[in-house]
Amino acid sequence: MRCAEDEEKTGVTVVEPPFKKEHQLNNAFHSLPAPQAFLHSLLPPHPRPLPNSAGLQDYLVEDLCPTKLNSLASHLWLCSAPSHTNIPPLHNHAVHKRDIILTEDPGLHLVWEPSRIFLKPLPSYMLSHAFWTHHLLNGDVDGNRKFVTQAALGLLRSYHCCIRHQSDFRVAQAAHLIPPDTSWDQWCAFSTSFHAIHNDHVAPRYHYGKLQLSRLHWLVRIYRTELNYYYYDGGYSDSFAIYYGPLLFVFGTLSVLLSAMQVGMAVEQVQNRDWTTFWAVCRWFSVWSLMFCAVVCLYLVISFVIKSSDELVWAARAQYRARLRLRKRT
What we know:
The chain is mostly helical. It has helices at about 35-40, 55-65, 65-70, 90-95, 130-135, 145-160, 165-175, 185-190, 215-225, 235-240, 245-265, 275-330, and strands at about 5, 10-15, 100, 110-115, 115-120, 210.
């Protein structure tokens, strides 16, 4: 994939499609003579009309550009390792009991929770050599066109990490992420040069791999003054369900503490009677119950601090190494 120097700060500009013409997976736009006919035939049937190139450009920005994540790119090292290879193969999600959820929102691509991961299917127009040649890589490189090209390259490169084995390929087809009529050999030929796509060519979001949704929530609360990165309304029960576990833990701990203190106070009433052995057992049991609760709470706090600090130090070191490699390359 040849590159040329760009006049702007973005480094390099791609001047050839990321795959060869004979390896394209969609040849429906192969012989379109007129540019206007190409624009009308570029996309599959869609309920929204695209009357001109400007309308098509707006559609591609919405369909491909992770705008919010790009604005958070300088802080994403707090959510993930600063490496685009931090993407597990598709078969790995079944090992971790994680469901693959399709989404057309580019801002949710490779965003994960413990039980699921969101993946954006490859649009059919991105599999066409004519699409890259006539629309993305030709003409004046305005701002939107450049952002769309970088987002498209980042999306393609992410699939190079998602599909590493033939088992991943079968999972992708079963999940409708890639065309069902594509063979394994065709996919290998199509994606053979995706590994050569450099960070300078992709959107800032795609300098990173998978991103944890809970950490993105905290990022937007701090840097964008928003409550959640992605909000889905599941009703009142889902909104309050996240508080049930912590509240039950707090109430359970307080109940044990109060019961232990109550026992400690009550055994004083039988101190001078004949039940001295029972009095000693009750008193020391209440004391040990209080100590046990204190130790458990202290352990949880220390574990959280150690784990968070370890991840933060590791992320900071990885970010430093990435910047050091960038300085050496420039």
